[in-house]
Design goal:
With 727 residues, the protein is of the alpha+beta class. It is built from 29 helices and 18 strands. The protein is elongated and about 110 Å long.
Length: 727
């Protein structure tokens, strides 16, 4: 039966891989953790300059890292990791069924039925979410064991508390959604036990304290690890778009369940007609489980209190799965085919859960509302197992048949699934051969790389960790948001997913500032190429040839053009030929933020209070005020040379200053006439900027008595300063 589960998930070692995109993302973290010389759970190969914490799935990544350290290839280690956790989930599903007084055969069928639910295997493309759902029986059994030990010896209570804390920790580091599901059902179980239990009041209070302390302690460990208490909440339209439509619960989607397709009971659905993404309608078919529950309850018509918990939680979780608005066969109106979010006016009526999703901590981050159906299905599964408290052979046969029928209806087409998961293995092997191996020849371990243009770079995780290089890029939207807060200013000036007209200038400055040894321009899509190989072309494919032509004209660079990417380095022969380092030459010849400020084109848009443009020069008019101010541009700390060209023979009382932070930080100020050169046409001086600023402003003030004209203004970082301070 476990072998069936492994085939359903595509987690058969050396034969298939459950998914491609998330396996590449997770394996990157696992490989990076394995690269660490000490027991360090952060990734240092990507998301630099700060170490990267995996936003979810650390429990699985650690397991894969351990398997890599014992000699398994990363792709194989991911499948072994998945199979290992599925084996654990199968064992504890069986144990929970036995704990609920079911026989050996029923429990094996129950474990199989649970792991063949569409909400488990249907989420393999989301990696650890599927494992988190699969492990719900283990988490819940850990709580029941804690509850049962509340009147036991001190030693047993301590042991069960430690085991429960371990379960909570595994849960929160595996997946956030399922940690909340586990918290909801275990807290509901405690509440019922507290109100109706026969154990002493003090033991029930102690149980509650222990339960909440373990959940809170595990969450605090997670918050400490990722460096924040919670992720940014999504807008309510996301919750609405990803809410489950009632039709999804009772009508299967074509191509998902083999038996429903065979009986012609399923219908086709696609993203052009339905809100959310495919996971909303392919993982939420619960009708077989409802029918199986009804059959199990019909066998024993005497209700008992053990059913209260799963029924109450089922109602709550199904309510939350609907999202903020009720949807009944709600398709997109014409003209909204490309939108994923759902506006309020398109829904049937509000459900009232919007307040919960907008105001309650943890719930605010659960933007994919439909995933609550995982808890609904878990409750239905519990109802099947608790329906018969006094089982007869007849009732056990009925329950067993119900579980087998549920499994038969829920599993996918195994031949189709096998072909799909085997293709993932083939794709990963091709990525290794066609991308990783050439890059291994063009880079060296320890080098710093940057993939430009940057995006949600799933592939960067895998490539950098495998090559043992370092890169600023990182995959995962939450990880990317965190990494960008630490990126150098010049990297943030590259627009994401596009090559703009200044790309070639910034690229040279990036290398000249010693921020990286190699720039890689992918000819593949760094996000979608991780999900399907050969990769679809990147959004910047039409600009690649032009930017390479511009870069090739630079004598300071070495360019290597491969089938899947282009590498750019500083020339290793330029200094030998000229005696000048390419970094110094680039910095002296280029002028872009954050290492240079340049104003040499004056127009009607030039900010001035008292100037006029004549033949491209900015002239005073005899009025007092600022001849020029701005441009509020980022500059890094360092020593700069100021050059102001123009005619300054009539300078009397004019002064020049440089400031930042909306004028609150004065960097430099001097009378213009005190720094005039001998030809009275150039103002020059050396200026020290002590820290990085985002809004540097240069101003020239005149009281109206000065006669000046300005042709250009430049503030350039000195080469030695750039080399020493760029990092």
């Amino acid at each position: 039966m476990l072998l069936l589960v492994l085939f359903v998930f595509g987690a058969v070692p050396h034969y298939s891989i459950p998914t491609l995109g998330q396996s590449i993302w997770t394996t990157g973290f696992a490989q990076s953790i394995a690269n660490n010389e000490s027991l360090d759970l952060y990734a240092y190969n990507f998301g630099i300059p700060q170490p990267a914490a995996i936003s979810f799935g650390l429990s699985g990544a650690i397991t894969a890292a351990a398997l890599i350290n014992v000699g398994l290839e990363p792709g194989i280690s991911y499948t072994y990791m998945y199979a290992l956790w599925l084996g654990i989930a199968f064992f504890f599903s069986y144990k929970l069924s036995r704990n609920l007084e079911n026989g050996h055969g029923i429990s094996l069928a129950a474990a199989t039925a649970w792991l063949c639910m569409p909400t488990t295997w249907g989420h393999t493309s989301y990696s650890m979410l599927a494992l988190g759902i699969a492990l719900l029986p283990m988490y819940f059994l850990a709580y029941l064991s804690l509850q049962e030990s509340s009147d036991s010896t001190t030693r047993k209570r301590i042991a069960q508390t430690l085991l429960y804390f371990v379960a909570c920790t595994i849960s929160v580091f595996m997946d956030g959604y399922t940690f909340i599901f586990f918290s909801v059902i275990s807290t509901a179980a405690f509440s019922i036990h507290f109100l109706t239990g026969r154990k002493s009041f003090s033991s029930r209070i102690l149980l509650g304290i222990t339960h909440l302390a373990c959940l809170a302690g595990a969450y605090l460990l997670y918050a400490k690890y990722i460096g924040r208490m919670q992720h940014s909440p999504e807008e309510i339209e996301f919750f609405r778009g990803w809410g489950v439509d009632l039709s999804f619960l009772i009508i299967p989607t074509k191509g998902t369940h083999w038996l429903a397709d065979y009986l012609n009971l399923s219908i086709a659905r696609n993203q052009a007609n339905w809100y959310g993404d495919a996971s909303v309608w392919t993982t939420t078919f619960i009708l077989p489980s409802i029918a199986a529950c009804a059959l199990c309850l019909a066998v024993n018509r005497r209700p008992h209190k053990a059913l209260a918990l799963p029924i109450i939680v089922f109602i709550f979780s199904t309510y939350m799965a609907l999202g903020p608005s009720l949807k009944i066969n709600s398709t997109k109106p014409e003209g909204m085919e490309k939108t994923l979010l759902m506006p309020e006016e398109s829904a049937v009526l509000p459900t009232g859960s919007a307040w919960i999703s907008e105001n309650i901590p943890a719930f605010k981050s659960m933007r994919a509302s439909y995933r609550w159906t995982a808890l609904s299905l878990f409750c239905l599964w519990l109802i099947m197992l608790t329906a018969n408290k006094q089982p007869s052979k007849h009732s056990q046969l009925i329950v067993g048949l119900a579980l087998l029928a549920c499994t038969a209806f829920n599993i996918p087409d195994l031949a189709k699934k096998s072909n799909e998961t085997r293709s993932y293995k083939t794709m990963l092997e091709r990525i290794d051969t066609q991308l990783l191996e050439p890059l291994r020849q063009d880079t060296a371990p320890g080098e710093t790389l940057v993939f430009l243009p940057w995006t949600n770079d799933f592939m960067a995780n895998y490539i950098s960790a495998r090559l043992k290089t370092r890169t600023f890029n990182i995959g995962g939207d939450k990880n990317l948001d965190i990494a960008k807060t630490h990126w150098p200013e010049i990297l943030l000036q590259f627009p994401p997913r596009t090559i703009d007209p200044n790309f070639h200038i910034r690229s040279q400055l990036f290398l000249a500032n010693n921020l990286a040894e190699v720039i890689i321009i992918p000819k593949f899509d760094p996000l979608w190429g991780a999900h399907s190989w050969p990769s679809p072309p990147p959004p910047w494919r039409n600009e690649i040839a032009d930017v390479v032509t511009k870069l090739a004209k630079s004598p300071y660079l070495e360019i290597v053009d491969r089938e899947s990417y282009i590498t750019i380095r500083l020339s290793r022969s330029f200094e030998a030929k000229t005696g000048v380092s390419p970094s110094q030459a680039i910095i002296q010849s280029a002028c872009t933020s954050p290492n240079c400020l340049n104003l040499d084109e004056f127009s009607t848009s030039t900010p001035t209070q008292c100037g006029v443009i004549i033949d491209g020069k900015l002239h005073t008019t005899g009025k007092p005020g600022f001849l020029i101010f701005g441009p509020y541009q980022a500059l890094n700390k360092g020593t700069y040379t100021l050059h102001v060209k123009g005619e300054f023979k009539g300078a009397k009382n004019a002064w020049l200053d440089i400031s930042a932070n909306k004028g609150q930080t004065l960097i430099y100020k001097t009378p213009v006439k005190s720094i005039l050169t001998s030809n009275q046409a150039l103002v020059t001086d050396n200026i020290r900027i002590q820290e990085n600023h985002r809004d540097v402003e240069v101003r020239i003030f005149t009281d109206g008595s000065d006669i000046l004209s300005l042709s250009s203004l430049r503030l350039t970082k000195q080469a030695s300063s750039s080399m020493n301070e760029a990092k």
